[in-house]
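Let's do one together. I've listed all components of the complex below, 619 residues spread over two lines.
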Amino acid sequence: MTTAGDGVRSKVVLRPKVAIAGHHMAKSFGHVNALTDANVTVESGKVVALLGDNGAGKSTFLKCLLGIEKPSSGTLVIADQETTLDTVRDAQRLGVDCIHQDLALAPALSVVDNMFLGHQVRHRGVRGRLGVVARREMSERAAAALEELSIRLPSLSVPVSDLSGGQRQAVAVARAVMWSSTAVLMDEPTAALGARQSEIVCELMRTVAARGLGVLVVSHDLPRVLKVADRVAILWRGETVVETEAAGLTVPDVVATMVGYRKAVA
Amino acid sequence: MSVETMVAETPQVDDRARAPRNKALDWLRTNAAWVLGLDVLIVIAFTIASPGHVFWSAGNFQALALGGTQALILAMALAMMLGAGQFDLSIGANLVLCSVVAARVIQAMAGAPDAQGNFSSSTGPFVVGFVAAMATGLLFGLVNGAIIAYLNVNSLIATLGTLGIGTGLAFVIGRGGDIGGLPNGLQTHFTSQLILGVPAPAVVGLLLMVLVWATLKFTVFGTNTLAIGSSRTAAARAGIRVQRQIVHLAMFAGACAAIAAFIDISRYASTAINGHNQDGLAALTAVVIGGTLLEGGKVDVIGALFGTVLAVVLLNGLIIIDVPPYYQLVATGAVLVLAVAVDQFRSGRRERG
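Okay, and this is what the predicted structure of the assembly comes out as:
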């Protein structure tokens, strides 16, 4: 629940150098050491791809960066500040939002209601105290946020279940961008999409980074993600084996590193 | 190529999903519209079939309004719960428990009647009785909600359990049976009061309906409720306190049960512990016939009203045209199944995302 005024931020903001970073993170579940030495640094305005084979620990790492899981050791940096997170809300408060693989949209609710889920704007005065939402203001702000990312939808009042897969993904991206001021984490954002829609989502990543946010993307779509990313971090059995510029990397090199065939690309 | 030109040159997210069409036309395709049509048909049928057309009379309409009010209030409780994808089968048991508690309190406070069988005319006992019913209903709801939200018991099972507990406790407090002979002030002060020709309880029921409709449509509480029903994970990830919300919803259902309980003892000056076994299922049926999704996320309040009317008119009409009670049960059940089946057939193409 927030009051009017935030959400769509002004563009002239002093950005931190490091949007989000995890250093030497470890996490074990019982006898399984999911993460042993995971590292990634996402600078503001950059897209970083977090790659790795199934079971490499990508999801666990992402959860540790979001406050869903608590790392056993290691440090977390958000907006240049070392910090710890207890809940997702803590991450949200620091301007970090995530687009989950399943999008976490409520299909029966409208686009506007989804974009403001958990952040509804109330009317001023008595109506606000009764919990009445200012839907017109929400619609205008949602439309502005979508417009800024050049996302066009037929209507913002249709339930999300009426939208195509790509449109849903776009709504999820727009929502995350709207409520994050530091970094956006994306978990397999193109997994459920066709070729053209995947391209659109990759463009959205660039657009989001161009607005000064750090973008961390987990994806198996190597050709596409290598094209869009500035930097690449490759996890192998819970540790970051490579963290480097994306330029010049080839898919076979990355795959070889992901499966542990070679320790270093480049 | 810069980001801006890429975005400008590439056709954005496809826009084949249609914008909403004419709202009136869309409404005609809803369950609510179809059930309203059915309501009109059976009213016409019963008017023609009833001896001397007594079905269509002010007296009968008032009786319908009173019976319908209780059903409507319980339907509103179920509508809110279903919005979040939760059930409350225990609502009938909650109702009888509230009514015996209120009856005990009223009896104790009103004292014994005088030689003519009249009670003192004070309204104090009724007010305290209502407060006692409300406290009972809210507490019952709190227990339901806590079991569902914090012990993670499926709401069907949880409320099936509390259905038994509530009914048993009602018998304990009623010492094995109903509590009768309550002061007739209940009727004179409440049930037989007319507001613009409408019985006072029916006005309460309609106000409650408007409240539920407005809450779901315009408030944060309503949006969060539907979000939980539509996708509990999405709601939780968006920072909505899902467990607390479910407890609040269950307590709302408890408050509805208390109001319906007070109307119940006001009408008959007695409790009716055995008369409400089926109330939870009946309310559920009325709401679902009206277009509310069992899975949660979509509530049609007006549809729930029409669904309630269908059930109440059917029962009342069959009694008036003198169908033996056993057949009434059969006919009521059959029409309800038929209504849902026809709806399923009609909207069989509906896809859920």
